[in-house]
Amino acid sequence: MEQLSKSVYTLASRGLAASRRATHDCVNYDPKSFMNDARAVLAKFRARFDSPAAVYRAPGRVNLIGEHTDYNDGFVLPAAIGFSCWVAIAPREDRKLVVYSQNFDETREANLDGLSPRARKVWVDYPSGVAWALEQAGYRLRGANLYIFGNVPLGAGLSSSAAIEVATGYALLTAANHPIDRRRLALLCQRAENEFVGARTGIMDQFVSCHGRAGQALLLDCRSLDFRVLPLPAEMKLVICNTMVRHELGASEYNTRRSECEEAVRRLGEILPGIRALRDVTLSQLQQHRARLSDVLFRRCRHIITENDRVCKTADALENGNTASLGPLLAESHRSLRDDYEVSCRELDVMVEIASRQPGVYGARMTGGGFGGCTINLVRAAEALEFQRRVSAEYTAATGRQPDIYICEASQGAEAAVFPAEDVPSVSI
Ligand code: GLA
Fold first, then answer.
1. Number of CB atoms found within 10 A of residue 423's CB
2. Which residues are identified as catalytic?
3. Mean pLDDT score of the chain
4. Nearest ligand 1 atom to alpha carbon 66
5. Residues 6 or more apart from 383 whose CB is under 8 A from it?
6. Domain 2-231 coded CATH 3.60.10.10
């Protein structure tokens, strides 16, 4: 979740416009183009800080199904995408972090000894928060110069925040010679977001940014953090439709949903003492104890419980090549998010409705936290370009807004850019 103020967001959007157009319909995992991005970031770091640097990348994500289930100890099925955040880093001799953001064209400084969890609602909260969480967990860091560039669309529900957190965490740990434990890194980036930035998000975004695999989705159990990789059919594209709507109430409504789930667990726990989270409640238990809940709480619980079931069924369908059942599962997920969890909006509903009747579509639904942002569409590769053209025209006709539509494949998670020695002879990483 992004908590940046509106003015900051507008500024960032302007900065990102060029890169977004450039990558509009080609954000596949392509190691060659990633290396070009890495070289560009490295060159800009050198121009600014006049020293060699190491470069790291972490991706945004799209969630196929399993929405708002992560903070209920449930199941999710996300994939990392090609849109990424890049961090070039070189250690300093003092304990200062000097951080330049290309997107905001701004430098901010922080002192590793003076970090405290107080969100300033500026972009530097993310790198500072991660440094704070790592040091809190006992990782002694080194001061560093950092150059950050991201092309994950901001405020679109594609986890630009997890991308910057994970890329920064990876960079800071490696610069201080700590080995990377991806599970721990994901948890500490989540801690940064929860306690420093102030958004009570679950573990999904940071986890998949750390563990994503090219061509595969992750079935993640958000309680145990056990996961299974699921190969996506080669002929299936992940087409992401950005409604270009960003609802300002997203962050506060997100926290409200989370509190509602906690309240429901508290009330149901009086009669079902073994439960720790909505993950532990069955649909028949919910129906049996309906009288203990308000109508709103009942519907919130129904979404979570049925959504967990849909995630498992979707994973089975993907594993068994049963693509025909994807459509109904995604449609039911969208309906449940719209009517029971109440996190959709008109533009998301319109986008899903238009997408669902296009040729070559396996399934469509809103993705991410909601209140605007994107839909995920599983589309046959051969039809993807035509899908992009038709949905764009129909959505514009229906809403007056021009959407961005990205044709993606699942990408690799966080990684270091390793430059061949002959490639950049004077740069050590
Ligand atoms: C945001 C949060 C995630 C998750 C989704 C909804 O992306 O960061 O933790 O809760 O919303 O599924």
1. 10
2. 205
3. 91
4. 12
5. 358, 359, 360, 361
6. no
Hey, which of 62, 70, 206, 371 would you mutate to test ligand 1's pocket, going by the most ligand atoms within 8 Å of its Cβ?
70
* Tokens, residue 356: 């669902």
Q: How many CB atoms lie within 10 A of CB 363?
A: 27
Whether the full predicted model's pTM is greater than 0.90, yes or no, is yes
Domains of the chain, by residue range, sit at 2-231
Pair of tokens at residue 120: 């300033």
Q: Do the strands 96-101 and 144-150 form a parallel or antiparallel pair, or are they unpaired?
A: parallel
| Ligand 1 within 6 A of CB of 193 | no
Give 367 Cα–ligand 1 centroid separation in angstroms: 9
Strand order in the sheet with 361-366: 361-366, 372-380, 236-246, 404-408
For the Cβ of 67 lying below 6 angstroms from any atom of ligand 1, the answer is: yes
Please tell me the distance between residue 67's alpha carbon and the centre of ligand 1 in angstroms: 7
Ramachandran angles phi, psi of 214, nearest 5°:
-55, 130
Of all protein residues, the one whose alpha carbon is nearest to atom 8 of ligand 1 is: 201
pLDDT digits (tens, 9 = 90+) for 166-185: 999 999 999 999 999 999 99
Shortest-distance atom of ligand 1 to CA 254? 11
Structure tokens given for 213: 């695999």
Phi, psi of 250, deg, nearest 5: -55, -50
> Closest residue (by CA) to atom 5 of ligand 1?
369
C-alpha to C-alpha distances, 142 to 44, 83, 114, 134, nearest whole angstrom: 22, 28, 14, 11
